Amino acid sequence: MQAAGADLLHFDVMDNHFVPNLTIGPLVCEAIRPHATIPIDVHLMVRPVDRLVPDFAKAGANLITFHPEGSDHVDRTLSLIRDHGCKAGLVFNPATPLAWLDHVMDKIDIVLLMSVNPGYGGQRFIASTLHKIRAVRARIDAWKAQGGQDIWLEVDGGIKVDNIAEVAAAGADTFVAGSAVFGAPDPGGGYSEVMSRLRDSAQGASA
After folding, report:
1. Which of 9, 15, 70, 204 could form a disulfide with 47 if both were Cys (CB 3.0 to 4.6 A apart)?
2. Exactly one of 72, 83, 156, 162 is catalytic; which is it?
3. How many domains are there within the chain?
4. Is 7 a catalytic residue?
5. Contact at 8 Å (CB) between 66 and 90?
6. CA neighbours closer than 13 Å in the CB half-sphere of residue 146
7. Residue 43: inside a domain, yes or no?
8. HSE value, Cβ hemisphere, 13 Å, CA-based, for 62
9. Is 156 annotated as catalytic?
């Protein structure tokens, strides 16, 4: 993925409780860390979340995001992530209200919007997410205009070559592509080709 042009490695961590699937843990992150020079972006779909934050930070994560529903104290979890030297962020499912942002804008580095209901790869992009992207972009821009820190706006779920431009135009600046990349033929060249097409489409829309 790094050789193909990715800027981040996105880790989907699922616990079979918060979402109906079981994926990878800190040991996999730790094993991959020496082989990658780009940041590792860990998305925790777990409950409770605080127990795993130190483990992933130690394993080499650079960014850690979590769902507010997975924490008993969102403000404290964000501080915990930052205290361990990682960038911190909140993740919003399609039906999760954005009101959580009203209280923690000063503690986040990234907002991740799910454009599918999390748990499985290969799902179709939920078009109503575009309204949510615009709403978060407006919040971030207003926050920065008041002197606030830079905040990334990441979108994950159903991102393809044929829709990434629309997502970028709505205000996203960071994109997670799973099946669109890994489903490309010929790992020797297909990954790079798809990554290049995704980047060109996104940059063209946001230019």
Report:
1. 70
2. 156
3. 1
4. no
5. yes
6. 9
7. yes
8. 12
9. yes
